[in-house]
Amino acid sequence: MSSRTRRLRAAASLALAAAVLAGCASAGPSDAGGGEKEGGTLVYLDAELTSNTQLQSSGTWQDSAYVTNITDRLIFRDPDTGELQPYIASAWTVSDDGLSYTFDIVDGVTYSDGTPLDAASVRRNLEWQARGDAAGGIPANNWFPEVASVESDDDAQTVTVTLAEPYAPFLNVLSFWRTSLVADATIEASIEEQSQITGVIGSGPFVVESEKYGEEIVLAKREGYDWAPPSLAHQGEAYLDEIVIIPVTEDSVRLGSLTSGEADVIRYVQPSEEEALQEAGIDVVGVQGAGNANVWDVRQSAPFLDDVNVRRALQHGIDRQQIIDDLYTENWEVATSTVTPTTFGYVDLSDELAYDPDESNRLLDEAGWTERDSDGIRLKDGEPLRIVTYVDVYDSTAKPLFQLVQWQLRQIGIDLEIKETDYANYTTVLEDTTVGLRRNGWPEADAWVRQTVNYHSAFSDAFLLAEPDTTLDGLYDAQAAATDDARRAEIVGEIQRYVVDQAYALPIIDDTQVFGVQPTVHDFRTTYEARPWFYDTWTETT
């Protein structure tokens, strides 16, 4: 361990206790630079604590990023093009009816505990994902379709999955971190063990060397790793010897550690911090992953939001361009649909989302909100038009964004009441069905799977409709069953138009993950969903 790493670990521990410190897609910092690529330690400061790494039930950004670096997947999603490419599956075929998928498994792959990642292991992983483990409290992966059978041919090293009905996103799902392949020892472990990063035994380019919860996770280079996606120029072992991951929740501490040279990469750079970092010689890397935009779900269980005119007034009462101009940088963009522009089936709905306060006022008048109190808030039957929301704890830029939207909505007579809570209680407070707006949206392997899980009445029903919307449910079902990409794109276009027209969700901005990266760090990469992936990364050693 280098003296620099020891110093940072000590400093970070002190910062976490006292909150003080003295002192890519493939886009990223320049790849130019001299020096030997092999070896070295990279210190990565994350803004959040690890929460749960159990694959079927986890979901936080930081946990998914760590899992990505210690595991492999059947299919590789090219970060630049979105193309599905071979990985642990060297090839695959899909039957004409969309029900049967056969995968050829690469020979010679092993997990970090030495057990083989062969056809039998892939079969067990897929069965486990599809069905879970009820006795062990492990849920099925809710991204998975209904699987009729999974069979492996150990001699031919093939695995065949037969679905109960066509499921268009299936290959995309198999490229996602949540379907990472793990050893039998992980599958057989208790849910408590799987929920800790040390309990996830993968075949990836790094292995978990140690974890001190709340202090650090150390990932070490996997000796003998030689099964990276064949489309990559880099083959063989990772360049870095180790990655030291330290959770530092205080923005000022992460910034101080980076500018002082004690850290190599940090996540969650605030827009207001970007210019100063660049002036200090730090590379600011903004990565926009494909998937769902930053939207606010409109929960119709809350007062007044079952009225489509009120919802549409909200849609037109938000000036998205002002949000970008006042609060963000060129790394961020206005949302023009419920998904980002690089997402499959994206439709530009800029006109439908145009800022139009006159239209908002007309809609609210039509809905009967014609009176105003002394503060300009609209009234109906003496009751103010007040909508409650909570600042999203998962978005480092959320608070000023919420406050600006609050000011914008006040101009049309809507009182947006903003409440705050902490990370531990955020999910609990949102169980209150009178909370009207909830921030949602993440980059994903398939945005339409995530939306189905979030919004279909048979799943999370995040819009909290009084009755299921059979039109919306039918569209989500139809896109999943489409066996033709052109037809699926047509259907997901209909979904976007319908959700925006009904103002079920309010698209705000296209989220960006912003990293600060030392100029001595080269080939910093991210996955298709913008999660950091350190396989190619190397540092200049001194």
Task: Give the strand tally.
Answer: 26
Rounded Rg? 24 Å
Question: How are the strands ordered across the major sheet?
Answer: 8-9-10-1-11-22-12
Estimate the mean pLDDT confidence.
92
Q: Kindly estimate the percentage of residues that lie in beta strands according to DSSP.
A: 15-25%
Low-confidence stretches: 3-8, 10-35
Terminal Cα span: 14 Å
Helical residues, percent: 25-40%
Largest beta-sheet details: 7 strands, mixed
| Approximate shape | globular
Enumerate how many helices there are, as a single number: 16
Q: Which structural category do the helix and sheet elements fall into?
A: alpha+beta
Question: How would you characterize the overall build of this protein?
Answer:
By secondary structure, the chain is of the alpha+beta class. It has 16 helices and 26 strands. It has a seven-stranded mixed beta sheet with strand order 8-9-10-1-11-22-12, sandwiched between helices. A hairpin with a 5-residue loop joins strand 24 (525-526) and strand 25 (532-533). Helix 9 (308-317) runs antiparallel to helix 11 (357-366), helix 14 (447-455) packs antiparallel against helix 15 and helix 15 (470-481) packs antiparallel against helix 16 (485-501). The protein is globular. Residues 3-8 and 10-35 have low confidence and may be disordered.
